[in-house]
Amino acid sequence: MNKYDLAVIGSGPGGYVAAIRAAQRGLKTVIIEKEHIGGICLNWGCIPTKAIIRSVNVLRDITSAEEFGIDVQGYQTNMSKIITRSRDVADRLTKGIAFLLKKHDVTIIEGYARLEGSSEISIEKSDGSVESIEATHIIIASGSRSKALPHIPIDGKDVISSREALELDKLPASMAVMGAGAIGIEFAYIYKHLGVDVTIIEALDSLLPNEDIEISKELHKQFKKQKIKALISTKVMKMEKSSEGITLSLEGPKGESELKVDMLLSAVGVMPNSEDLGLKKSGVISERGFILINENQETNVKGVYAIGDVAGTPCLAHKASKEALIAVDHIQGKEVKALNKKYIPGCTYCEPQVASVGLREQDALNADIAYEISKVHYRAIGKAVATGHLDGFMKFVIDAKTKTILGAHCIGAEATELIAELTLAVTRGMSVHELAETIHAHPTLSELVMETAENALGEAIHV
Predict the structure, then answer these.
(1) Measuring CA to CA, which residue among 336, 344, 159, 148 is closest to residue 241?
(2) Which of 270, 325, 384, 388 is surrounded by the most beta carbons within 10 Å?
(3) Helix boundaries (H) for 336-446
């Protein structure tokens, strides 16, 4: 039986980061993957989705080219090529990760891993054979998969998940997107601008319900301008399929109604991949499928760790990667600073983009924190006007006494890039004074950060 210092189950953004970092530190490491190196994120999530969004944004640039003095004629959308490009992007990156693992002498085993104790793993191969290994430490990074509602089963044809949505080379005339989190919002944006009549259905009372209320309202307004229909505070009570399509029975603020569509995309969340890992046999405790961990990412069983989606929300790739580094540090006896979920940025890549970090205004209100708000619109920034990106705003939630930035929220062009500076500011407890004093190059969209900080001090120049 082969023995390792560390065995990592799953090769997504949590698993491969843990394996590479451990190998860099001199640990004999093995990574076990049941499907594709790179996990869901690189193969069927973050990366291919963004590749398709890039194609959609190029299409939107073409359709609005006349506004910028350019006449375009004779273009057409080739869905098959869009999908092919997205798959090529995903394949390129997964091959890159596989190369990095081999470069760092990480052993890769293809198969399904199950814990047989705190230091033994059995691996079921595709040919039915089973290999057993021993490891001093184990990191579970098995990820998650799309969740389906009991009365709306996913069949992969008429009712699809995000995975099937990434391979639609033939588009339906109409589509309902059930769930208005980041996944649902991004696909609604994608398929509307590829010519599909899209309706979003959300049980809660706003789009992107985890975002600041003002941000959610602004997105709803912008989606209306793009003719993306959204039914909020609305539940799907029943679904009927026929040769003519899908009929959804809805219950919303105005009572019962029906919606007929050709296809339904279920984006109601994810569920952890933990039910067949041998957790019970090994004594590892989970709750609702999520593995319970301490501040070091360690489970109740010494030497067994869990990171990423399987270790709890938020289910984000960058959260998994950070948890990987924490787990490896703890394995090596280094001083560990526990992950503070308050400092994890969230991003949604529709247009306008949405990004946030730290406290929302409703959080500060509910916690009875004395706070102030500073908000500046994109139209106040020269680069935004020059490039035609006038929609959206940046918003700070600020401690009224110390002027520390408690939360930052942005909706507009390149919000998912601008959030990096704001994450640093919130994480390091910076004040609006410090951001206002930082020189930002002109003309850039990042001047929005400086202007919002200056606005909090009553000294904004362009507002």
Answers:
(1) 159
(2) 384
(3) 361-366, 382-387, 415-427, 432-437
Active site residue 377: no
Q: For 128-159, what is each residue's pLDDT tens digit?
A: 999 999 999 999 999 999 999 999 999 999 99
Separation CA 197–CA 62 (nearest Å): 20
What are residue 283's phi and psi, to 5 degrees? 85, 15
Domains of the chain, earliest start first: 2-146+271-341 (3.50.50.60), 159-268 (3.50.50.60), 352-456 (3.30.390.30)
To the question of pTM greater than 0.85 for the whole model, the response is yes
pLDDT (average), residues 5-12: 98
Q: How far, in Å, CA of 210 to CA of 344, rounded? A: 13
Which of the residues 330, 409, 442, 462 is marked catalytic? 442
Q: Does residue 263 contact residue 246 with C-beta atoms inside 8 Å?
A: yes
- Output the DSSP codes for 300-351: SSTTEEE-GGGG-SS--HHHHHHHHHHHHHHHTT---PPP-GGG--EEE-SS
Judge whether 252 and 231 are in contact, CB under 8 Å. yes
